[in-house]
Amino acid sequence: MSQRGDQPAEPVTAVTPRPVGRALLTQSWRDVTFLHWPVAPAAVAPLLPDGVRPDVHEGTAHVGLVPFRMHGLGFGRGPGLPYLGSFPETNVRVYGVDRRGRRGVVFLTLECARLLPVLGARAVLRLPYRWASMRRRAGRERDLLWTSARIGPRGRGRPATRIRVRVGERIAEPTALEHFLTARWGLHTAWYGGRTVYLPNAHGIWPLHRAELLECEEDLVAACGLPAPEGAPVSVLYAPRVDVRFGPPPAGGR
């Protein structure tokens, strides 16, 4: 729910409204596969950081299940880290608007196949990274298979996913919903001391493709505290690559 004095949500734009000058992190996202389902804003609201309200499209919030390959993760303008900077990842994400009206991603989990980046991101950026066993397999007819299983103590349920898609043609002009779900130029995260910070990012226009969902088995969304998705996703998209720069939090943290 918005509070008195909150600014309205900024427009959805295909390129960032906040260019990143000094880069905090650089990385490339490859084979990005977007699955999205509708979810009630009231279910999303309790999972958001302080000062962030659900972002909605035509009154509906959405949850995304997004596997992709992280490549060349590095600090500042330096080269990407060898080995540790490239790994498959699957995240569960929802969308929020902060009190300044900035739209952004809120990650509920980021399942990652490298333990050291998991530990570093949790400690430094306060992001909910978790160690998982992940694989990506490319098949015939532009099929992609993603599998993930969280690594944790024996005897406890370990959330897992199995997603197979077939990549289709490039989209000439994304719909309003497709722009809303992908054109996100920052993330909101709970910081030390209970503060909420916004980390801006910048990259080129998403080279989005249609995709067909061939298989989806997952219990990761429910493990994050949301209702398990019902039925087919309302949006299935694919992007081969974007090169991304994250900037530091704005002065004042918010």
TrEMBL record:
Protein name per its UniProtKB record: YqjF family protein
Xref: Pfam families: DUF2071 (PF09844)
InterPro entries: ADC_dom_sf, DUF2071
